[in-house]
Amino acid sequence: METIINQLFWLWVPLSLLPVWLRIAIITYIVVVCLRPIIIRLLPRLIKWGSILLQKITELVSLAFMKLAHRKLMKRRDEGNYVIPAWVDVMEDSVAFLLKGFMKTEQLFKKRTRNKYTLRKTFRITALLLAIILPMAIINNPTTTYSKSWYQFEKWASEEKVKKALGFDLSDLQGKVGTTLKQVEGVEYTLKEQYEEGGNIRETPSLDGNIVDSLKLGETVTYLEEEETDNRGITWLKVKTADGKEGWISANIVVKA
Question: What is the pLDDT of residue 166?
Fold first, then answer.
């Protein structure tokens, strides 16, 4: 089974010849279209079964409530009070409304979808829109989580599956991917050699900011593409440590790693 799955990654080879944005668009479109039969067939059944289950639960709960309400009403009548409390009417109406809604939902999804062409058309339009929007979002925002996930997927498919499992090297075809991955991973900074005692990472871009962490000689931090200059003329870089802490460090004491 694993061998068969690995063979499917030969399809990744011709895709690697295409620009990154076109690869994203094609795969997005294929994934959405492939999900269509699952959503159309499975989702209505889940909704129908859920409606039946909720209907049964509501009936059981309402039965217990009605028994309790009946006892209280009989006790009130024995005391000569024949007025029915408003909360009884409210609860009865609420239960009837819920049961009616669940029954309508069940009946609705018992019927097979009549206009399949409209659903197919809707899915195709959705797939097309996502195939346009997602590549733009990934290309224009390379440091976001979803962009990193995509480029990591490309790296995994190219190196782990195509190169190692199938023995085909895509490094020449995907030079652009490697470059983009380096950009996505972010620029790293380290302390200048003369700062042996280390440097402080502060909560705000100022010498008055609280210290959230420290950077030792030899350690690196990732630059988060933000910088500010304080009233003293010191430029501060927003960085992230290996532990995930974010803060600001003076550009005067660090250099690119």
Answer: 64
